[in-house]
Amino acid sequence: xxESCLQSVVVTLRPAGADRASDREAxxxxxxxxxxxxxxxxxxxxxxxxxxxxxxxxxxxxxxGRPVGVSLxxxxxTTALAVGPLDVGVDVERVxxxxxxxxxxxxxxxxxxxxxxxxVLAAFWAAKEAVLKRDGRGLRxxxxxxxxxxxxGVAVFAGAEQVxxxxxxxxxxxxxxxxxxxxxxWGA
Length: 188
Prior knowledge:
Elements: H1 3-7, E1 9-15, H2 20-35, E2 42-47, E3 58-63, E4 66-75, E5 78-84, E6 89-94, H3 95-100, H4 108-114, H5 118-135, E7 146-149, E8 154-157, E9 160-170, E10 173-178, E11 184-186
Parallel strand pairs: 1-11
Antiparallel strand pairs: 1-5, 2-3, 3-4, 4-5, 6-10, 7-8, 8-9, 9-10
């Protein structure tokens, strides 16, 4: 396995697949590409940390038998895949969908920082989901427990600051990555 995989997180955006099977194939390809191993040496699946079911839950992967941190997210038309050395969380959102949703998940400080800007609120929401996915509990945790400051590139959760990387690849699309401070690179 290539050393670069052990030092950075590779995030890839691709057109959304039709179903979970296509997401799994995309995840296998992303892990193979990020680690430099043949796709035949990659294993991936899902497991729920609460009930142990493999039909849903957090994605996992190995490359040549070694664990690799992975995360995936979908929104209309786009899938985001993140592959890294440790636990990683990624989320992708349509700004228009977040703006239209009646979300009661923002802290007072976030509301003040956003000043009504729907792009900033979408970035906050994506960062919250990325942090909670990295944590492993996802939306089982109240998203208002995470306070995001996009300008500083941090989210405070459980009393600790976590680095979050936010990128807007299009006017209606935002991606957030929580990777424990590991460098984030954007794949093709």
